[in-house]
From TrEMBL:
GO MF annotations in UniProt: ATP binding; ATP hydrolysis activity; chromatin binding; histone binding
Domain AAA+ ATPase: 166-309
SUPFAM superfamilies: P-loop containing nucleoside triphosphate hydrolases
A Pfam family per the record: AAA
Family annotation (PANTHER family): AAA DOMAIN-CONTAINING, TAT-BINDING HOMOLOG 7
Official protein name in the record: ATPase family AAA domain-containing protein 2
Organism: Folsomia candida (Springtail)
GO cellular component, one term: nucleus
Region (Disordered): 1-22, 92-128, 608-629
Keyword entries, A-Z: ATP-binding, Bromodomain, Nucleotide-binding
Length: 682
């Protein structure tokens, strides 16, 4: 624990505060922050700043249970049968062949009053022509729909003769903007095109037709089902079904009206004959839907809508640019776009495409010769970051690669850390070993820590960049949970509490089926911050609430890794935070750099040691490094290796970041002299 008594670190018993960074002034030519793209903004976002960063709302005591859309319920006017028909059943596409209404008011049907929902800002341009091909990246779901919905509807009698039972209900669930409503609309359209069969499609939006008058909503539902049976075969699509049938077990405050609706719904689903009426439900969170509704026999099939993978993103971008008259992204550029959009939902991708073309229009003021350029895409990307609404999507984290010149410093550290971490990776050793014993009892979580709080922009930050960009980890989507991200999210969703944001993010990760990494820089500080926020107004004597995100994290299982960091003494880590990690295997403490690594790094300075710079230096570079070892340089090299030894790695990294940046910028004229002066002062 030598390093804990460093001069530049003051330990105040509670936490540690870095008073200054090591002096590297003679070498600093450019501000440090400009050089390295830092993985975390913690250093800029201390507890004290937080209040300025975003005003936490006063209602911090949010129960972790689901919140009922009370305003919606109260705010809804009494609906007469006609109203209901207009807002509910009439929102329904009548796919009945030959019905003159089909097509004429299809748009209305499929964009029910534009009411809520993530429909990507105004719905799809060509709603009438939506087909299953308009839905990208969901090939398996589409195949299932064709096989289990379309085919049985078309060949109902034959299927019955063969005793094949179609599903009674299908539940769509997944993050906002992943195409649930889109797929349902496409099914509605496709069904109306089915030849020789008249199928009615009813669209019903969550709490929209919910009436505050006891019994009214149930009556409405009964009418809807009766109509669906009368016009069989038919499909009822309950969009945002959690608004109508919330989980009765998860909330004690659930109002009676909902309980009645859930009970009615259960009876109604059971009463309809399989094959006559197919019920499709859609929700963001499966857990928010009453479990009795979800039970097999009612919703036989549950389809999860993941965030699109690279191929899916290509497909969706292609769909949303298919109507462009020119400059559609193809080939390599499409691949670049798909790679840059990790974590984007279908709705995000649609917005990106729309913004891009709008940027092209804005640039070409005359509106005649429109050309979409890469700059238009780049501008759209910058607009995206500000406006992305999905919690999950906004938390996507893409680590920057560590500057190559710095890599030698991390080689030994990576060699030790990676095998330890591998144990916990979604496809790592533990996952492959059935019944791997005690380790499996906890969540897959791993902590990288350093005993000194200096500034995670340096060693810890760079190491984490290196880890997250390593091929073992970079193949997983990474999400970040930290104060700056929460601050950004809260700024865009002002009426949502911080506790709910954290809960939403963790919930979405928990429900996601794809393997992923949840990166939590400075986890102890996050805990401390959330504690402060939820207990903001309380005095010392009052009972304090404990942030629940740790127990939420513990419910994350399976193919996800929680990768956290902490800078400071272990004794300062809150017990709850500690309890997340297996302190024997799931933890790694930062090391000092070895002589060999520092030597390898400094050797890269050799081309700058010659007296003649410019062409000679370039020649030397081309020839390889065999001319590097001038006597003087070798002596300097050994001296610097020795003088930087014994120091914790962090300030060495600081020095190296400066040096490597100067090398990159070719500001080499005085580099060696500066280094010499620097060493002499040590
Ligand atoms: N898989 C996809 N393929 C093509 N476009 C998509 C896809 N997913 C989303 N989009 C675009 O985003 C818009 C919004 O998606 P949609 O309304 O279907 O999301 P959702 O999953 O129903 O979200 P919410 O849970 O908020 O209701 C769609 O109208 C479409 O333009
Ligand atoms: Mg929807």
């Amino acid at each position: 624990m030598d390093s804990e008594t460093e001069d530049n670190v003051v330990t105040d018993g509670e936490d540690q505060v870095a008073t200054s960074l090591p002096t590297t002034t003679p070498l600093v030519a450019v501000p440090l922050m400009a050089m390295v793209n830092m993985p975390s903004l913690y250093s800029q976002c201390d507890m004290g700043d937080l209040q300025n960063l975003y005003p936490f709302s006063s209602e911090v005591d949010i129960p972790e249970e689901i919140e009922l859309p009370v305003e919606e319920v109260n705010g809804l006017s009494l609906m007469s049968d006609d109203d209901f028909a207009n807002r509910g059943i009439n929102n329904i596409a009548r796919g009945r062949k030959g019905n003159p209404k089909v097509g004429a008011d299809r748009k209305n049907h499929f964009s029910p009053g534009g009411a809520g929902g993530n429909d990507g800002g105004g719905g799809d341009p060509d709603v009438n022509n939506l087909t299953l091909e308009s839905v990208g990246g969901l090939d398996d779901h589409i195949a299932f729909i064709r096989q289990s919905v379309m085919y049985p509807l078309k060949h109902q009698e034959a299927m019955q003769e063969w005793g094949v039972e179609p599903p009674k209900g299908i539940m769509f669930h997944g993050s906002p903007g992943t195409g649930k409503t889109l797929l349902a609309k496409a099914i509605g359209n496709e069904i109306s095109k089915l030849t020789g069969k008249q199928v009615t499609f009813y669209y019903h939006k969550g709490s929209e037709s919910f009436s505050k008058y006891v019994g009214e909503s149930e009556a409405n539902l009964r009418r809807l089902f009766a109509k669906a049976v009368a016009t069989k075969p038919s499909i009822i699509f309950f969009d945002e079904i959690d608004g109508l049938c919330p989980n009765r077990e998860r909330s004690a405050n659930i109002c009676h009206a909902y309980v009645g609706v859930v009970t009615a719904m259960l009876g109604l689903i059971d009463s309809v004959k399989r094959g006559d009426v197919l019920i499709i439900g859609a929700t963001n969170r499966l857990a928010d839907v009453d479990p009795a509704i979800r039970r097999p026999g009612r919703f036989d099939k549950v389809l999860f809508f993941p965030l699109p993978d690279e191929a899916g993103r290509k497909n969706i971008i292609t769909i949303h640019t298919s109507q462009w008259l020119s400059d559609k992204p193809t080939g390599e550029f499409l691949t670049v776009l798909a790679k840059k959009t990790v974590g984007f939902t279908g709705a995000d991708l649609k917005k990106l495409c729309t913004d891009t073309v709008q940027n092209a229009f804005t640039r070409n003021g005359d509106g005649k010769t429109i050309h979409v350029t890469e700059d238009d895409w780049a501008t759209a990307f910058s607009q995206m970051n500000k406006s992305s609404t999905a919690v999950f999507g906004s938390s996507v984290y893409v680590a920057d690669h560590v500057p190559p010149l710095l890599l030698p410093l991390f080689s030994a550290e990576m060699a030790t850390l990676l095998p330890k971490l591998d144990l916990f990776l979604p496809d790592g050793q533990l996952a492959k070993t059935p019944g791997a014993g005690k380790l499996l009892n906890g969540p897959s979580s791993f902590l990288v820590w350093d005993s000194i709080l200096v500034d995670d922009r340096y060693q810890l930050g760079l190491l984490m960049q290196n880890v997250l960009t390593h091929p073992r980890l970079s193949k997983y989507s990474t999400y970040i949970l930290d104060v700056p991200t929460l601050a950004k999210l809260q700024a865009s969703r002002r009426n949502v509490t911080i506790t709910k944001l954290v809960g939403d993010l963790i919930g979405q990760i928990e429900q996601s089926e794809s393997p992923c990494v949840l990166y939590i820089p400075q986890i102890n500080k996050l805990y401390q911050t959330l504690f402060a926020v939820i207990n903001q107004r309380k005095g010392k004597e009052e009972n304090h609430q404990i942030p629940v995100f740790i127990s939420q994290l513990k419910s994350i299982r399976g193919n996800k890794l929680i990768l956290a960091t902490w800078e400071g003494q272990m004794t300062n880590v809150f017990p709850q935070v500690k309890s997340l990690f297996n302190l024997e295997h799931g933890i790694y403490k930062l090391q000092k750099t070895g002589d060999a690594e520092r030597r390898a790094f400094f050797k890269q300075l050799a081309p700058f040691s010659g007296k003649n710079e410019g062409p000679t230096e370039n020649k030397r570079k081309k020839k390889g490094n065999n001319q590097n070892g001038s006597e003087a340089f070798n002596r300097l090299l050994e001296e610097i290796v020795e003088k930087t030894g014994g120091d914790p790695m962090r300030w060495v990294v600081n020095l190296f970041v400066n040096l490597s940046n100067r090398i990159d910028k070719k500001e080499d004229k005085n580099l060696i002299t500066d280094l010499r002066n620097y060493l002499d002062r040590l």
